[in-house]
User: Fold this.
Amino acid sequence: MAAETAGARLEERWRDILAVHARTLGEIDRALHPYGLGASDFEVLDLLATATPPDGEQCRVQNLVGRVHLSQSALSRLIARLEKDGLVERSMCLEDRRGVYVRLTPKGRALHAEALPVQRAALARTLGG
Assistant:
């Protein structure tokens, strides 16, 4: 009986987490829509903005894989879309041909800076921060 109750509590907590996640992503998507970004787009821009200094250093795509909640193929498609929009640039790693670097363009850095307070406000609304 106690095991069933503990299991039910875990399941309820899990569903609560999923509900908060869904509400938060929805709020961020709505808030960033006027900027042409979704929550995942912004997450990649935000990671690049905080992981690399403004002087144009690059980040390996492989380093982003574990930090975003996307599969490697979905992340590659997202980065390709951001590159098409002129927000990031990709380049091959000369030392390791399998490696791909990505960095923000000036346009990407400017859009990130403009959208950052909007994304943070959406987080505050949904997470109560």
Remarks:
- The chain is about 65% helix and 10% strand.
